[in-house]
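Predict structure. Chain length: 308.
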Amino acid sequence: MAPGSEDAPPRLADRLRREVLLQERPDGGLALLDPLTDRLLELSPRARRGLDRGDRLVELELARAGLLEDPAAEALRARAFAARTREKPAPVRAGAPVEADWALAEGLPDAIAAPWRDPERWRRLAEDGAAGRRYLLLPGLVARDAARAIGEAVEALPWARLETDLVKAHRRLLAGDEVRAWRDLMESAPLRALMGAALGRALPAGTVVNAWRLGAGDHMGVHPDGPQYHGTLSLGLCEGWTASQGGAIAFGEPSPGGGFAVSDRFLPHLGDACLFAPANDTWHCVEPVTAGTRRSLTGWWVEPEHAL
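Prediction complete.
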């Protein structure tokens, strides 16, 4: 078949979808940007020459990237258009502000850091919850010295090792007066009232508390905290913790393929707390620790007859 004849196959460059943007690279290669998917494909100078020659390997690479005009192109355009023109999310339904005695914050125990004894801070937290924020972060809730003392009490606990498909960690289910300072905080009436206001529900006086210690490779699998609990509160006890050490509580949604789409993360910084209202769909996990020792406390408010 003679080059340039009517039956000659089109050049690969001519088969690119019309939206694809091309930009010359300084090294003689070519950058291809797909504005529908926001994906960028970089072609080396050699691959760029193959674009004009109709090189089969370059064709396969372009096809995998979805950059060629084919029967699926129109469907891709329709999806991209729909994604960019869908209706805006409905605003939060208008209603009365959250009602609570915010002045209770001024009488919180001394272990609670001074910024959290400001009533306005609790009012704002409750309005964040009313606006739909499901997992509430309370940075620096516990004063640093008090958090260190709690951490020392946790470190001295007798531990049991868990090795299951779901959990690889050391755990202690607190009993009696173990880490009493933390249980006293959770059971204090002013703190329960304020946290209940933030969650939009009353919190009973009973508590169940787990202490956790995770080393390198330890983790907790994806799970919800079921509705038998009225509220979940996690306290970080790690001083100087970094994101590179892993161990974040990751919140999100399981995907049909077995993955987990993370929407938010909470690192176990010393004195920071995370609060949420448990339900069958409050999916979360603790991501694997890569270095160091991760210590934390997780407490639940329960009816007094279920307390430990």
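Summary: The chain has two domains: 12-85, 102-306.
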